[in-house]
Amino acid sequence: MNGRIGVLVMAHGTPDTPEEIEPFYTRIRRGRPPTPELLDELTGRYEAIGGTSPLTTRTRAQVDGLTAALDVADPGRFVVRLGTKYVHPTIEEGVAELAAEGVDRVVGVVLTPHQSTMGSGEYFARARAAMALADPPLALDVVPSWYKRAEFAPILADRTRAVLAGLDPVARERTAVFFTAHSLPQRVVSEGDPYPEQVAESGADIAALLELDADPTIRWGTAWQSAGRTADPWIGPDLLLEMDRVAAEGATAVVVCAVGFVSDHLEVLYDLDIEAQDRADALGIAFARTTSLNDNPDFLAMLAEVVRSAAGSPIGRT
Length: 318
Hints:
The protein has 318 residues and is of the alpha/beta class. It has 2 domains: 5-146 and 296-316, Rossmann fold, CATH 3.40.50.1400; 152-289, 3-Layer(aba) Sandwich (Rossmann fold). The chain is 45% helix and 16% strand. It is built from 12 helices and 8 strands. It has helices at residues 21-28, 36-48, 55-73, 91-100, 117-132, 152-166, 186-189, 195-210, 239-248, 266-269, 271-283, 297-312, and strands at residues 5-11, 78-84, 105-110, 139-143, 175-182, 218-225, 253-257, 286-289.
């Protein structure tokens, strides 16, 4: 051991080539190959955004930016590695790289602000199992969520404010603002998962900073997007259905702040930029979304402080 602290940055991952879409989809479906119809649908979505998602590039830029921010604050203290859920490098491969570096312990952080059983919970379980097999075993300090970090809501509030200010004055007359995140199966949240409440809190924090309740031309709420193609019910209200509703009630514009996502990827570039935009066009209303955080320096400086706080306090150690 050399006194350095490992940082395992965990993310979803995405196929890097069209040929990788089918095995990727099979892994997401827990080993069940998709039907030809489902595969064609997903492939078509990737084709609509250019053939593949930029998520890999964006995630690596985030890891590089976090590494740089940590080196500025604590030179040489942290060793940062990436581990993804569905592609290479996997979470297990990331743990193996950190073990080979001889770190004393590991801080685990997921590139999603909110805590969920299907999200961060599954990431941490895999990291924990891999660390138990290291020689010697590694301790894991987890960051269950970081949506309440003081800097987070202001960053997104600034982006939402900029979108609102950029609306055409006519479209701006009656605006609906939705704070969105990836939906989850209803059975998960019915078991006490904190995810829906945390997402709603994020939306409320941003709305408070923007004083949306004091603006008679704006109404706001939480909506859900990108539900899976399964027979199980997923949590709502669904964003597209909410767009139908507010348009019928007289809204002239919909603005989305995708509070649950930190990067451009399929759920942003297709589900919002294409699918939601098409729905808005059909409804005859304006549509706009906030820009993704990606490798924004302020965001990564904030994430570096999240890691440093976790490294200094073993509250989350498992």
